[in-house]
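We close this part of the discussion by returning to an individual protein. In the encoding step, the backbone of a single protein was reduced to a row of integers, each denoting a local shape. The sequence in question and its structure tokens are set out directly beneath this paragraph.
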Amino acid sequence: MMNGQNVLAVIPARQNSKGLPGKNTIGLAGKPLIAYTIEAARASCLVDEVVVSTDGEAIRDIAIGLGASVPFLRPAELATDDTPGVAAVLHACHALPGYDLTVVLQPTSPLRNEHDIDAAIRRLEERNADFCVSVTPAKHHPNWLFKEEGGGFLSRYEDKPISGTRQSLDKVFALNGAIYVARTDQLKRQQTLFGRKTTAYIMTPDRSYDIDTELDLRICEMVIRG
């Protein structure tokens, strides 16, 4: 609970994945991938309920075994490759009314911990924001990115002159997908996890890995095992 507000954590976990089959239950340093997110959410000081939204019975059984709640299996129409990510979250919010804040935790971010979750929730309150998203410093500034035009020639992605040093450029950040916090009423109203009045919780790159490939999995395993 945060300042008298009930906090729901939703962990969306589809059973199918094209990039890395069975991604959410794949083994990582001796545990299913989803276990890291469930454990972090349950260790949070501010989260009142941890719910896994899944269409898979195997994921449901693992989640329940780890102490998460699975009050429903997600409808098939909300578990396709084309389903917007926010759709499953909205489904959970409507199915489980009474929560003032909703925290969305992707199971593909195993290095995010309970301290990050609590800090992101507090950041939302401190900034009086409607949404808070976790970010990490971008590896490349937009001024130094290029796109390929017709004929295979490169042009700058940002139509700005390349000048100065990297240190002199504005700080830019990339979403890392680890944490989304929203005021539930605004989430329902704006139908997004990144709406008006969005603030940022900054995470270091070493905790910002988002597992999408076998290489990502191996890197995270090396980090966890030290």
Summary: The helical segments are 33-43, 57-65, 85-95, 114-126, 184-190, 214-225. Residues 7-137+173-220 form a domain with the Spore Coat Polysaccharide Biosynthesis Protein SpsA; Chain A fold (CATH 3.90.550.10). The chain has one domain: 7-137+173-220. The chain has a mean pLDDT of 91.
